[in-house]
Write a structure and sequence with these properties.
heterodimer, A: mainly beta, Methylamine Dehydrogenase, Chain H, four-stranded antiparallel sheet, about 40% strand, B: mainly alpha, 13 helices, about 0% strand, IER (chain B), Immediate early response 5 (chain B), repeat (chain A), WD40_rpt (chain A)
């Protein structure tokens, strides 16, 4: 596979793994989203317990230049708590569905995190100085008796241990009746969109009590519901363009200049269904679980249950590239339906140069596709196959017939070990792969 | 045969999922429930199609058996026909059968002809059907005749009436909408309210797939040599199980065919709570009924 630097094949090496080693995984620890910030210096993860953990890329060691710095915990905070909607008698899960970083504008970092109903803007800032010598209170914070104060002094800033604070700056609530599945920051750095099953809202980052509804596909009669919105994203270069995908396998591109309510799409992307592969589960596996624009903004990628498709925004009738992720599962759809795995929502991501794409699969496997050479590789994120700075060995699933040595048969795959969330550093060949409650970081070996 | 069991199994699994989704943490997930309801509908189409097709075939087979020497050549043709209509277990080609061009319309009318004759209508049925060009168009005419179908003694008529009338004739727009279904494939209908339309559609598709061209030729001969007592005895037994299933099916239709809102009653709060409760109860009842019906029903079919 061609590397970002050009010419060399990727050689992915294990770098780090974060998270407990226990076999017993607490549900709250399951990672539900992974996202690098725009520079790649920070890596944020959200989990089902509503917590956000941010890792920072340490500076590279000068005496070991071949080793890139590691990611260490920078900040941990509770972003969302479980809530109860008394009106509908519904519990609102605290699981973090998505995290999106804002572009950095000052020394603080901002990110948006969302659960099913509420989006929050968090400010993460460093504090390494502390004021000492207050007049009205003691060093331990207790108020001083005013009658005891005989002189006035100016507080002095003293250095202290670095403290990273996360504070919620905005709470965008009560705008979504259905479950929020996506948020996306606009390229104007002032607005962002949030999408639930039936509606998409446009927010201004400064205004929390109002949002514009820009897409509404709720039918007048809910009995006529045929499709829902599954993902939405803003185009990275044009602040008036966004796309949203549906459960029917279609993508609609909308231009906000055309109308205030973008129910009528500007472009409609759909690949005709192959009638020979029709089954009970055709609708489920065609449902798109993720849509991501390329960094260039010219292409977009969609993930459905069995494949990843790359679309050229200028061609609506079919994708330009289709990659099969785990076609061997097509004959197992019935059992995957029974154990609910067919509803798993896999994400996908681009590398910095848009030359490669990555997505997850089962058995802690994840797949990478090189768009130029058309080569693909399957790797595993597991402690057994992760030796410190050891190169990852390509894995292969045998699809029937004779199983070769080192291959794993389809029936031996562990469907509880699923990699739904992956992220690729925007500039370097560093990837973060979430395997249930563990976060694996792999780096490309620099020769 | 195993295909129908598979469809039945998928239906009960789907019902279970929908029922369980109500008690899941975080509320009802609209996307997942929508997908499950689509699977439920597809499975149901296959299930009903196989069932009614099985009845058609079995009725034909029963007639052929009592005709004696007529049958030796016919049965040889019939068996491959029945195999074609019971494709492989993984479901994909079975649904592909659905997508045949409506060029076999003549055969389907012939099959419909056979069923109608069992209830005593002879020549006019064929003309009526051919004139209409599509069996669904008989829906408005036959609905009043169908009546509560359980009361009709002849099981085949029960089935054919059910097949054609499908849901309770509550929707006056159905008569106008069904002609469109002639042109579309039943398995592609995704609209919630088209669940009702697809019942007649699946019946027609099933007949298309069940019949060979040879059967069309031999049917005029066969119809004259019916043996009513034998047929009614077989069909009565089927009618009993059919009654249980039809009530089940119609309640399924009521809940899932026409009402997605029941699932969402707690989502948008617009629907009254009683509907939600009723829905969950009937969801449970349907689940139980479906599961109970599996055994006596397949026994009855296997007997034929």
């Amino acid at each position: 596979m061609a590397g970002v630097a050009g010419g060399n094949d990727f050689q992915w090496c294990f770098s780090q793994v974060k998270g407990a080693i226990d076999e017993d995984v607490a549900e709250a620890d399951i990672i539900s989203t992974v996202e690098f910030n725009n520079s790649g210096e920070f890596l944020a993860t959200g989990d089902k317990g509503g917590r956000v953990v941010i890792f920072q890329h340490e500076q590279e060691c000068k005496n070991r230049p071949h080793l890139r710095g590691e990611y260490n915990v920078y900040s941990t905070f509770q972003s969302h708590e479980p809530e109860f909607d008394y009106l509908k008698s519904l519990e609102i899960e605290e699981k973090i569905n998505k995290i999106r970083w804002l572009p950095q504008q000052n020394s603080a970092h901002f990110l948006l995190s969302t659960n099913d109903k509420t989006i929050k803007l968090w400010k993460i800032s460093e504090r390494d100085k502390r004021a000492e010598g207050y007049n009205l209170k003691d060093e331990d914070g207790r108020l001083r008796d005013p009658f005891r104060i005989t002189s006035l002094r100016v507080p002095v800033l003293m250095p202290m241990d670095l403290m990273v604070e996360a504070s919620p700056r905005r709470v965008f609530a009560n705008a979504h009746t259905y479950h929020i599945n996506s948020i996306s920051v606009n390229s104007d750095h002032q607005t962002y969109l949030s999408a639930d099953d039936l509606r998409i809202n446009l927010w201004h980052l400064e205004i929390t009590d109002r949002s514009f509804n820009i897409v509404d596909i709720k039918p007048a009669n809910m009995e006529e519901l045929t499709e829902v919105i599954t993902a939405a994203e803003c185009q990275p270069n044009q602040c008036n363009v966004f796309v949203y995908s549906s459960s029917k396998g279609t993508i609609r591109l909308c231009d906000m200049r055309a109308a205030a309510l973008c129910d009528r799409h500007t472009k409609f992307f759909e690949e005709p269904e192959d009638p020979s592969s029709r089954s009970f589960f055709s609708e489920i596996i065609s449902s798109i679980s993720d849509v991501k624009f390329s960094h260039s903004g010219r292409y977009m990628m969609t993930r459905d249950y069995l494949s990843v498709k790359v679309w050229d925004l200028n061609m609506e009738n079919r994708p330009v590239e289709t990659y099969q992720v785990h076609e061997y599962l097509r004959s197992k759809l019935c059992s995957l339906y029974e154990n609910d795995c067919i509803f798993d929502k896999f994400e996908c991501c681009w590398n910095g140069s848009d030359s490669a794409i990555m997505t997850g699969s089962y058995n802690n496997f994840f797949r990478m596709f090189d768009r130029n050479t058309r080569k693909d590789i399957t790797l595993e994120a597991s402690r057994e196959s992760s030796k410190p700075r050891g190169t990852l060995k390509p894995r292969k699933v045998s699809t029937g017939g004779k199983r070769k040595k080192d291959e794993i048969s389809v029936d031996s795959l562990d469907f509880n070990k699923k990699i739904l969330h992956t992220a690729w550093h925007p500039k370097e060949n560093v990837i973060a792969v979430a395997a249930t409650n563990n976060l694996y970081i792999f780096q490309d070996k620099i020769n | 045969m195993e295909y129908k069991v598979e469809a039945h199994r998928i239906m009960s699994i789907s019902l279970g999922k929908i029922y369980n989704s109500r008690v899941q943490r975080g509320g009802i997930k609209l996307h997942k429930n929508l997908l499950v309801s689509l699977v439920l509908r597809s499975a149901r189409q296959v299930y009903l199609r196989d069932y009614y097709g099985g009845i058609c075939l079995s009725a034909q087979q029963a007639r052929e058996w009592c005709e004696g020497e007529y049958m030796d050549s016919e049965q040889d043709k019939l068996v491959p026909g029945s195999k074609e209509s019971m494709p492989e277990s993984d479901g994909q080609s079975e649904v592909a059968v659905d997508k045949q061009e409506p060029s076999n319309v003549v055969e389907s009318h012939a099959a419909l002809d056979v069923e109608s004759e069992a209830s005593g209508e002879q020549d006019h049925a064929e003309d009526g059907v051919l004139d209409s060009g599509c069996s669904e168009l008989k829906t408005p005419e036959e609905n009043p005749e169908a009546s509560p179908t359980f009361e009709v003694p002849n099981g085949v008529t029960t089935i054919s009436s059910n097949c054609i009338s499908g849901p309770p004739p509550s929707n006056p727009e159905q008569a106008t909408e069904t002609p469109n279904d002639c042109q579309t494939d039943g398995s592609e209908s995704v609209e919630e309210n088209s669940l009702e339309r697809t019942v007649p559609q699946t019946c027609t598709n099933r007949k298309r797939s069940a019949d060979d061209s040879e059967l069309t030729d031999s049917l005029p001969k066969r119809t004259k040599v019916m043996s009513p007592p034998l047929i009614s005895k077989n069909d009565e037994k089927r009618a009993e199980t059919e009654e249980m299933d039809t009530s089940n099916v119609s309640s399924l239709i009521t809940i899932f065919g026409s009402s997605f809102s029941g699932l969402l009653s707690s989502e948008d709060g617009a629907q009254p709570d009683s509907e939600a409760d009723q829905d969950s109860d009937s969801g449970q009842i349907c689940c139980d009924q479906m599961l109970k019906n599996l055994n006596p029903w397949s026994t009855a079919i296997v007997a034929f």
